[in-house]
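Our preliminary data section would be incomplete without showing what the modeling component actually yields. Below, a chain of 1300 amino acids is followed by its predicted structure, encoded as tokens that our downstream tools consume directly.
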Amino acid sequence: MKPPIARMKPSEITTNILTGTQNLDSTIQIQLENGATIHIPQVPVTTATTIAAKSREQQPMGMPQVCQQPLTMPQPCQQFPMTGVKVQRNPPAGAQEFNGDQRPRLIYVKSATGQNIPVSFMTGPDGLITQVKRLPPNEVSRTPANRFTNGLPPLEPITPKIVQAPNTCTTMHGPVNGAGYFCGVMAPDQAVEDEEVDYEEIGVAETFAEYWPTKLKQGMPHPDAVVETATLSSVELPDITYDLSLPAHFQIAGSLSALQLEAVIYACQAHERILPSGERAGFLLGDGAGVGKGRAIAGIIYNNYLKGRKRSLWISVSNDLKFDAERDLQDIGAGTRIKVVSLNKLKYCRIDSEENGRFRKGVIFCTYTALIGESLTASSKYQARLRQLVQWLGHNFQGVIVFDECHKAKNLTMGNAGKSTKTGTTVLELQKLLPLARVVYASATGASEPKNMAYMTRLGLWGPGTAYAEFVDFVYAVERRGIGAMELVAMDMKLRGTYIARQLSFKDVTFHIQEVNMQPSFTNVYNQAAELWADISKKFTRACQLMNVDNRLQKIITCQFWCAHQRFFRNLCIASKVNTVVKMTRHAVRHGKAVVIGLQSTGESRTLENLERNNGKLTSFVSTSTMIIQSFVEKHFPAPRREAFIELLSTGEFVPETRSQPPRTKKPRPTNIDWMEDVDGGDSEDSDVEILQERWPPLPEESAKGHGRKRRGRPPTRTDKAERLTMQDRILMHLHGNMQAARQPEASEVDPSVPQQPKITERDVTRCILMKEKLLARVEELGRLLPPNTLDKLISKLGGTSKVAEMTGRRGRVVRLGRNDFRYESRVEEDISMDLVNYREKQRFMEGEKFVAIISEAASSGISLQSDKRVSNQRRRLHITLELPWSADRAIQQFGRTHRSNQVNSPEYVFVITNLAGERRFASTVAKRLESLGALTQGDRRATDARDLSQFNIDNSIGRHTLEHVMQQMAGDRQLTTKHIPDSFVGNFHEDCATALVGVGLLSMRQDNDRKTFTVEKDCNNITKFLNRILGCRVEIQNAIFKFFLGNMYSLITQMKRTGRYDLGILDLDAHGASVTSVKLMLFTREHATGTAATELHTVKVERGMSFEQALAKFHREAKDSYEGFYILKQKKRNKNTAVLCLNGQGPSTLVTRKESSTPSPVYLQLYRPNTGPQVKIENLASISLRYVLVSPEEAQEYWQHQYDICLDKCSHVFWSRLCPNPNSCEVGLRVRTYHVLSGLMLPIWGRIEKIIERNGRKIQIIRVKTDVNKKIVGTVVPSSVYNELVEDLSADSMVSSNQ
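Predicted structure:
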């Protein structure tokens, strides 16, 4: 990626050393130290030379006089950091005179050999140079230098090293000169002005706002506070035109709250429309966990039932949720009328047949797993559940189909079915087969990314009659528009009435991060394990070479290696927190709380493997970590067992081990329990697991063997569970093939074009077997130190199964009966079936029989564990998270188990993390997300960077770009940024970290003599892979690497902000308490795929200053410490001074509970200026004290009032007596600014808007604003220069109205 060339003025390229004289009509010729010379035409302006001379007189004595001759320039010359630069007066032949127009111009760069290199550039009305490019010489020779009237011929980018331009800061109002930063330090005469540069004048907004239905005039209040994103709250739902058939008592008795009733009405109203494609429009219910989606869905089904549509289909993630569906229908009074039947209880035949109880009306409840199920024995007509359902519903079906937790169908790729999951394709097929069905999509995270919406075909966002003919066009249009684009899509859907999304407020929820420092002994074990895995990696590579393993097989082994590696270290991290969690849980229960502990996985498969290995005997809890590494080496190391190899040598025949062993009796495993997903601990978002699933190709003989077999109810999502040869069998088969090839007589003629397979010797195989045996011995030695199964240990230490309710996906567990007496027992009790185990445990917890619950992610989907007013156990919930998912949204979903509607009290969340840098970071991400959910009114704290969640998000384009650079630095391809190396690191940072990254497969190394050469592996910018892999480094190494990465990323973000390239997404225009007044509103009404809506063009004025009376009142109200108060500059600048108000501000968030440090924390202050009010950035006291001095309010009043008055209609450049680069349009530092904001219906015309704005050299910026009459506006800023053009374009195909 080439760094962009900053925009600059020719006059800004100045120097310390000037030679000769310069005429007003001549060009400037700059010769650099490397011999290159830049010829730049002079900028003619009308400013008198006396102004420049006066400006030079005002320079401080310490500044060098850079201009020795009077020059006609827009502003005085600035200090230029290059030395030895010469300015010459004569331009080469063909150079053009610069006249300030916007045509392409030509300059020449003279190389060290004297060759003139033609360079083109463009200039805007503001005189700024942009689009600097090198012109091919052959094109110049054919084109007159002064006649580029039809545009320039094809150009090749100029090498950035030729011209190093000063930084500029681009705001919504245009570029702002930032040359003072170019020298590495701030020029003294620019120190104050640059502080007021508005490149961050808009703060990141509060995320959520209080919610109440605006168009609904009936219904009871919701029992708990509910919020909506501030973005969505800026647009209103359409007017209600639908009449419900629900009984009148619904609005009186509160069976449905006003919020739930609103969702029912708008869903039914959306269903009345038919899309241009001929399909019925659908509705997306995006309410968060705990708001009451289930009851709203029940209301939609009941309303349609009363309309005569008696059949409905409810698809969800777990069979346990059927009980919740029945409860929701019962609560709204429909339980006696509408019967709910589970699809997995029905036989594979007609649903309304006698065999299935003649089920003719009601709700069929099924899971996504059951939806894709197929029978092994049923007739072809009803072999698939999908066909069975479609037959029952009928092709003209107009009833309700609910896709609950519809994000389960997200892995659907249009046009590439090979990468789609069967769930996604089946959901899409069901909608196509029933075009008139009333579809409801329900998920809190369903619309998080455009690529995950492929199955939502009924929303009218793409397809016939829309702006995007295909789904891929829609995805491309949204993804290329940056962070805030999805929020605009959500606004668009709400405006059409097809989307609604509310969440419970976290206002009363408390949370903190409990950091657990690994004990030195545990750290030592962790480091030993990291070294062992690195050694295993080397041995595997060597063994694959000795065994001549082909690339295909080697890929399988490699993928299995990284899957096991990832699970091992995650398990180790979790195990290090067990003792802390036990102490916290016991303390909470003693103090009257109920505890919920969240896990991701259970490790059951490793427990069962250990039982099989030891014939069911147990002497302790099974160590999951030990079993992961031991099982992997035994099964996947490319070397056969010694006994099997000896048998192969003696018999010469290959017999798979699975056939040679006596058949085992398999325990029956239920196939209809959908929560049994977490036994292996694999995470659906784990990059290495996904790679494994994609790269496990079946052998030819396996493909033939599996051809024609009927699939079971569950598709084979785990490849290692399908019927196939084991890795050891493959190795033996490989050796057998090699032996047969060796026995064949040598052919007399060998085709040289065909590569010959090298022979594997018996000595090579023996060496590999010996390597494997030594590794297993080391694993056994380390296994004595590794911790036991986390879940079993937790239950044992917390009082056993009689005290702990377990809601997980495992079928059995290890219990401790005595000191050394352990037993594996089933979780199934005598009087219940397996699929009711978790439901029974939940009841015991909610009724107060048990006060501790442990839940896994797969088993807890949709489960309610809050302190419900209807249950006995109303203790406050303490929700402890042992293993956070690496997604804030998924974490919020987990927390929704204990924070739901109708609760007695709000829960308390504790994130238990280790002192590993990566884990700490993601805990902070989730904490910030929770904080934003509860921060509805934070006053001036909104101006601090604590609200900026972007600093906690690294899995984005900036993070990936940074990671790529970091890897290149580690490999030696880029210069190491030493300033980001942690001060506490001991050793050779580059060599130690690079070697560690080799050990985890992120770099490769080649050693020539004593020299090591590192190379970056492919996919080096994959953030998830990076975070997974570095867990396998030594503790001190991975922390150092992660801190180095963060330092580089923050540096890049700072640079991008200064150059106007950083996309903060949707920003809040009034985030600092500014007063916003609406001046004008134009409406452009047009039809869209699902109705009619208006695009709004607002003109607003923003008053952001702070009068001295306001500042003084704030000072008296909030100041507590001696260093708080009014400050003025220590040294006047240009004979002027300024005053600022400094009050205590919130520094970098310290949510992590850690041991107190001996070093005092720095004092952070929030700055307030008379012309711009509260500032986005906070500063520490030491930095402020270097430039300012504390004074009394009386002394500061004069300076405060003067700047306050001047900046009403004059920019900061004028205030500081500097020439303004944009005298007609500059708004830097103005107290009052004017903005044009385009909002409302945006999606159909997005491309047109973007083309107009970007054609004028501006970037799309989405902002949010609330006027003084509480009107919320979210939309795109329209620069004044394109306002008239945009109005003309929008008026061409819409009905226009205005309030003026």
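The two ends are 48 Å apart (CA to CA). The CA atoms of residues 209 and 1133 lie 43 Å apart. Preliminary results of this kind motivate Aim 1 of the renewal.
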